[in-house]
Records
---
Amino acid sequence: MQSNPLSFLDASYEYLTRRTGAFSTHYGMTVSGFIKTKFALEDRPDIQILFFAILANDTNALAIFDKSFGLTNEAVLSLQEISKEHDVVLIVPVLSRPNSRGKILLRSADPSDYPKIYASYLTSTKDVDTMLEGIYATVGIMETDVMKRRDAKRRKLFVNACEGLDFDTKSYWECMLRNIGGSTFHAVGTCKMGPNSDPEAVVDPKLKVHGVKGIRVADASIMPLIVGTPTYATTIMIGEKAADMIKMDWHNNDSLH
Ligand SMILES: Cc1cc2nc3c(=O)[nH]c(=O)nc-3n(C[C@H](O)[C@H](O)[C@H](O)COP(=O)(O)OP(=O)(O)OC[C@H]3O[C@@H](n4cnc5c(N)ncnc54)[C@H](O)[C@@H]3O)c2cc1C
């Protein structure tokens, strides 16, 4: 919604009298779905598609989007221009089961120093190919009757680095991916759960740190592999399971480390 007092008043009136309009939905991410591309290794989806609705000239929503996804300035300006006159739906493919692996290293022996984080996004060619399939799927969505009935049109964001490439080609989309692709912040796996025999495993199946007494890890970091969805719900269940295991250990007067 435009950030001026009158539009808030109009929206309030519309909602209170007809239960429609800007206040009848949270906007933001309103719809999401999953697809399985030809690169999926298992019979499970490997791409999530997010739909972000931004009302025309909704400067608040744009600012949130800008801050959350770290788009480049030129891409944000381009999005601002487009949304000045039109409602915008951003159809965003997300790589659900990335093949690329990052790493996290200690900067020094001082525990208050920030670690070095190497995300290593899109270092695996398979990830790029899967994301391209995700992008083609979003193009397909734009060609559906539903979108046509709404007179929805694709618009091109200005990203200087990709301007020399023909729109809609594989090289164009790969360029866009590498220039304005971002993270959905679902980092996991830095304290992987696994058996003692696994040199990469940090915690055992009871979330106890291998070789160290008296410490468990119960958060997103213990996931050995990322789940194919956003990570919050799974992290809560890890916490619930940890609480159950700790209570069980106390109940059984088991080793309490
Ligand atoms: C911007 C953003 C958007 C996201 N959106 C979604 C979403 O829409 N859906 C979804 O499912 N997931 C989402 N996620 C991912 C989800 O939030 C995380 O997977 C989840 O919060 C991980 O939980 P955690 O307990 O492992 O870590 P955190 O939630 O990061 O919790 C760690 C806690 O430890 C505290 N802490 C840190 N250091 C210390 C210390 N030294 N002493 C004491 N306490 C300390 C922190 O303050 C924090 O409260 C998003 C993440 C981000 C960053």
Note: The longest strand covers residues 28-35.
---
Amino acid sequence: MTTLITPADIARLVAAHGLPALLLRLADAIAADFRRWPAFDKVPRVASHSQVGVIELMPVADAEHYSFKYVNGHPGNGAAGLPTVMAFGVLADVATGAPVLLSELTLTTALRTAATSLMAARVLARPGARTMALIGNGAQAEFQALAFHHGLGVRELRLFDVDPAATAKLVRNLQGVPGLVLTPCASTADAVRGADIVTTITADKRSAVIIEPAMLEAGMHLNAVGGDCPGKTELHPAVLDAASVFVEYEPQTRIEGDLQQMPAGFAVTELWRVLTGQAPGRRRADEITVFDSVGFALEDFSALRLVQQLAAELGLGRPLQLIPALADPKDLFSQLQPVPDLRPPRCAAYSTAAIAAAVRSTLPVFSPATQMRPERTR
Ligand SMILES: NC(=O)c1ccc[n+]([C@@H]2O[C@H](COP(=O)([O-])OP(=O)(O)OC[C@H]3O[C@@H](n4cnc5c(N)ncnc54)[C@H](O)[C@@H]3O)[C@@H](O)[C@H]2O)c1
């Protein structure tokens, strides 16, 4: 049996552990897997682009587990009442190929993206960073805010979104978080001024310039999350030129990240090398660092493994017969035995006479000869 995890299960899991503890645990789980980097079979995600968005498949595996995520990015989806990003994924057993977990990944993507941003900022932001500009206050924003507040000690969030309703929603959701000051700002430049960390998490299917070189200040860390697709960027190329740039998986970020604007030889450092001590993270207090985040399959792998473990501990999820249960593994054909159709007849499709005949056929049959009722069926 495959275990099915729904958004309601994730909400229960968060309620049981608390969002701060879960974000920290997820950041640790992702970091632990990044430290095992060579153990994974990796490939840039496979993307299918359209005029309005992208649909992507993200596979990764180690010797024991395989996972993939289906995820989209449609910045105009709000008009259709749908989120920009929707996702689900599978964790499978490498030894047999059996899918063991089928999980929602929309909420989990927001959790794992925030946890990955935290993991990167721990080695790239200036120690003692307390102020963060948060540009783009949509679906992902609260998760980022809470990861940096609880995991790094950020105390003030300077907020900007071109949609004031998105900022108002964020303020509504986070007001009352102890020790967190929320400051809505009039523009990106206003929000970024004086910030130790700048998180950009906007959605726009074009090469936007959210952060200009003139906005940079010595020692800033930029957590650039929204530029994650060919033709979809957030940073002016001169911002990357002025910074030390860190990425998840270089072959994928060269195609999808803000890095797509830079020449092939532009130097970047993969985060796993920093986490294993093979490369430095931040080297100086006045250095400008950029985490050019695009989202890598390994983060979903770590999240699926953690969800599997915590759901089992809490008894969450439900068994799903996704694969046929076969008495004889070679007798797949026997699964095609007709199954009785228990659906009620669709009356609108029948004439009155046909309905009357159908009703009569369900009544007990009387014998005209004896006028005796047949035995009741037990
Ligand atoms: N790197 C990753 O791992 C990762 C993971 C998840 C999502 N993302 C990306 O993050 C972005 C945000 O995702 P979301 O689910 O929050 O989307 P969303 O549509 O819910 O929110 C995006 C917000 O950005 C705002 N925005 C657009 N252009 C702006 C601009 N020029 N200045 C300020 N605000 C602007 C929009 O008004 C909206 O409120 C998307 O681009 C998505 O693809 C990346």
Note: The CA atoms of residues 296 and 331 lie 39 Å apart.
